[in-house]
Specification:
Elements: H1 3-8, H2 12-37
Length: 41
């Protein structure tokens, strides 16, 4: 995941889709982190 690429190719349709994918990815990643650290946000 490269932020600069996402910013450079900023088309509304693509942005919405990629944002949802990134949110889902980050949510899963943070859930794993929270389970490891024993934190719940």
């Amino acid at each position: 995941m490269i932020e600069s690429e996402v910013e450079e190719s900023s088309e509304d349709d693509q942005e919405d889709e990629s944002d949802d994918e990134v949110l889902a990815f980050l949510t899963k990643k943070f859930q794993k982190w929270n389970m490891r650290r024993g934190k719940t946000y």
